[in-house]
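S., here's the first fold you wanted:
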Amino acid sequence: MGLLSWLQNRRETWAMAKALASASTSSQLLPLVVGGEHVPLLSDSTHVQGYSLNAWVYACVNRIGHAVAEAPLIVEQRKGTGRNAEWSEVDGHPLGELLEYVNTDDDGYQLRLQTASWLALHGNAYWLLLRGTGSLPAALQVLPPTTVTVDAGQGKRSGSVRGYKVRDAQGRESSFDDTEIVHFKLFGARDMLYGQSPLKAIETEINTYTASGHFNSAYFRNGAVPSIIFKALAALTPEQKARLSASITEWQRHRGSRPLLLDGDLEAIVQGANIDAGTATALPKLLRETIAAAFGVPPAMIGLLEYASYANANQQAREFYGSTVTQYWRLIESAINEQVTSLYGDQYRVRFETTGIAALQTNFIEVATALSSLQAHMTTDEIREYLLDLPPLGGDWGTAKWGSFSETVLARPGED
């Protein structure tokens, strides 16, 4: 049973059968197709449905969202100017409290999770700045990007965005200027006002994956009965065709659980007598890897472990946080600093605090392995200075090439 045949409309299938019948006066081929239902397809306006239609889209978006949300947002203040400028964290800053409080329903983790998830799924994310009695925001609200339209033009802050229109659940539209909405977006090649969803590049793959899943589901719902072609040795009369059609319809209604009795010179030809021939198995496996690649999520991070070992699974985690997640952090930081932080003064910035992310921390087992090969060529102090950013030890330890791992990494200058 072919996947393309299964996806055809019943009317088209019977039209093909009639064409085959009219082409030959000595025989007829009447195909019986399992299922015949239409499959929901993704398009520009329905990308967000991929989250509920495809398990691997769900897994990738979920993984990106929670990974980004793991790192808290902190506020830093600049001291000095130019190359001598230093940044230090500011405790209790109003912006920091806003990013952690958010609103009466959400906290900082939910804010980061929703923002990153919408970015990964839709290519755009929006915050509505809810102002209190003053000019500074008192709360934040994440808006579903499917409800927001960008209004091009000269704005109060932006030279290309005049404002935004937001639809509520009842379809009513409200307008906001460009200082009231924070817009996060991925790169979009077709329209500079909007970001492009990763799903745009893999629409065909996701639609094919979804179709293959429906194909397999219909096959098993039909009692794992494969498609059948009925062959007649002579042309059937209209009455015989009608009787056969009624018998097939009744047989399908019972999902093939009852035997189909054939009379006359009819022969049933089974297309695919085993599950491997009757279902799509290899295709979904290939497509899931394409979907993961488009989102920048290594296979091991979403449970695809057949190609993973302990060593490369850890490496995949480091690459995921070091590339994909870091890119989301930078995009979100950039939008906040450009559109929100400037309200509090140009001496402040917001950034993600990543020191608590295990995948980004030094792997001392790898360091020890590397040191064991380098110690024959570099002194302990050279390794500390150029590779570990540690102060020199000096003395015999510092100039020697035989220092142990603990001496090289953990020792402190001037200590016995």
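And the second, which I think is the more interesting of the pair:
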Amino acid sequence: MKRIELPLTDAKQIIEDYYNDIKNQRTKPLLWSDWRTRNIKGIWYEPCPEGPTFRYGDLNGDNRNPLGLLLTGTTVHGSTIGSTGSGKSVTTNFKYHDLCYRISPEHLELYMIDAKRVEFSKYAQDYKLPHAKVVAATSDMEYVITLGEWFVEQMDERNNLLSSIGASNVTDYYEATGIRLPTRMLVIDELGEFLSVCTNNQMKRFQNILSAVVRLGRNTQYFIDFATQVVPPQLDKTILSNFGIKFCLKVNDPKIGELALGNDASYYIKQRGFGYLNVGDGTKETNQLVRIPYISDTQFQANLKEMCEEADKRGIKTSMFYYNEKQVKPWNSNWEEIAKASRNKFLLGHSGLYIHEQWYNSFDWEYTNASNVLCFSPHMKASDVMLEMLVRNLNTKIEDKDSIYVVASNFNDT
């Protein structure tokens, strides 16, 4: 290779032009449409046999340097920390839009939980994200735990499958069988909201979930990614040390940055849309400054629509379970059919726990033997709903409607 000698003045000018170019880029909004044009070859074009690559945006704000991380080795499991308004939602939306736009739902499954019931609900509205198997808009820690425990059960089953043919990881299994096992991710938004109200028992169970996924997740391609305002103090620091991908946006306290990133650099971020990524030893020298692309609501829906249409075109069958704790589900013909088919069951309603392939709760009830049902609630409205469910259950099981009597007592004064 021929070496070209440049005059010192020309070399200085090149360096100055480079930094001026980056400076000019930073003054303009970095939009998803521009990022996609530059960095994505087409929808679902990445085969990713060794696993997916997380991308966070442009390194140092330079659009010539997109930053990506293959989820392997120590760079597995992620955390995103940032104060209110710092861009956690922008970061999460970009990360998963970019990921899902590149990788087919045949190779990637998401299980998404949102404590504030806002961000992830958008993935389950008019156009449902084909990769999302579960979207839960709930602040109930018990739901998080039951979904997490099911997630671990599935991971253990996959680990047994790998062991049965002597494969140490998913890549070995693919090479031995030609079968691609999908990557699965448990994504939790506003984790601190959940942990602030959980009981000691719930905290122990949640720590067990994290510990299990940290132990086996890398080889089985089961990952956890969470976002929150501060590093939850309840979490075991040993477990957190195994979260190899640490991303921190602007924080209001340098100590928060130190816990999240290993150093306080994120406290000094001045411009929105930037964050520090650290996959090293937590020192400032191993920080990488990243600029995150922004996805507008219009583009958000357009992306989902395009992915849904692509799934239909390819004949990919997708299904999503959407749970919203604030959404009232009316009694309809679907409930009627289930109640009639379940002669000795009392239907309670939609489950507040994650029960795979069963979205309702019930209990055994021999109504013909005058079984008693005790319902207690500090709220009269809830008791009224329970009584209505009682009547509706009886209506589906007893032919002579005139023989149904419901006697309700109000113990509010006792």
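Why I say that: The mean pLDDT is 83. The longest strand covers residues 53-59.

Talk tomorrow,
H.
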